[in-house]
Amino acid sequence: MIMRLIMLGPAGSGKGTQAEMLAKKYNIPHISTGDLFRALDSNSDLRKEIKKYMDKGELVPDDLVIKILKERLGKPDCEKGFILDGVPRNVTQAELIKKMGVEIDNVINIEVSDEEVTKRLSSRRVCKNGHIFSTIYPKPKKEGVCDVCGEPLFQRDDDKPEAIKERLKIYHEQTSKLLEYYQNLIIPVNGEQPIEEVFNDIVDGLKWM
Ligand code: AMP
To answer: For 6, which of 66, 93, 107, 193 could close a Cys bridge (C-beta 3.0–4.6 Å)?
Structure first.
């Protein structure tokens, strides 16, 4: 069976956490464009160009996003499916993905209020490998250190207040339009529940092709 999933929801809705759990359960890759961008060589021109947008919480231009995504989706581990996290971010990207011949089976929409998003993002701490913790919940065992890989935890530039505001604005102006675009595939999930309950709702909602 094949499972090609998109995770929708504002930044801080728990998309990344849930995508990681789904990737383990179904043994398919979790593809986050944000993580792909952060993993680019920090001295490369491409990374420097992309970072300008990321630090302000603005969207990276669609052509760059799609180029990097296409490369990733071409790898053999995507043959049995994949979970897209943070992409598409607007209808243009959704159309470009369709043009690539990529089919989508389910679109999970994780619903979380702006207030909750702001609280979660401003308390979020990550390590350089993309593991996510919080100063509120879930805290790492040792303050400032990743439980998984022992790397230091830090606050992303785009989790700072001005960038959070910008990201929410873009979400409401652009990303939320994807709910209409994918209307027949959407599975709505309440993201303001404990992580395990959100996960169970997603698993129960998935439609297998
Ligand atoms: P994320 O880790 O998904 O929150 O993404 C972090 C930042 O990377 C975003 O605020 C954007 O600047 C950029 N980004 C990630 N994915 C996309 C995308 N699909 N389109 C445009 N920009 C993106």
So the answer is: 107
